[in-house]
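Page 47, continued from p. 46.
Same chain as before, 171 aa.
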Amino acid sequence: MIINKMTDPELRYQAILAKIQKRGGRLTSHRLALLRLLAASEGHPNAARLHELLRAQFPTISIATVYKTLAVLKEEGEVLEIELHNDRRYDGSKPHAHPHLVCTRCSRILDGDGLAALQDIEAQIARQYGFLVEREQVVFYGLCPDCQNTPEAQTPPPAAVNSISQHDQWE
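Result:
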């Protein structure tokens, strides 16, 4: 697996553009703006958010253009699709596989780039199970640092003892 750690937005944009040109894809002003937006993105926007951001500059851009371009970029390995319940988010600045940390309270997504133990899992899976991994996605759910410091996070969850004792009453 080749990990592309290119983080300079202009270099990312040029790399994505070169792949689309090599493929022979249409380079409309809408697509070019989406490529630039993804290359510079520091977050993990969904298609609706990308569409919303692009409409400020291109009021006639369709959501279909966004989805079609994302599909091409995903196929070319230039965008990482993160599947979350009933939503898909996109990482255009780091298209290589890496863990994501999702806050269950505010829905913030953090990159878990420095988790070294996860880097060898694909090879171990192949050795141990003979399984060929085609794509991987590792997502950890929990509370981000900001949400951990809110009053709601300080409230302890209901005691498991209460549910056990109610259950025990019927036995």
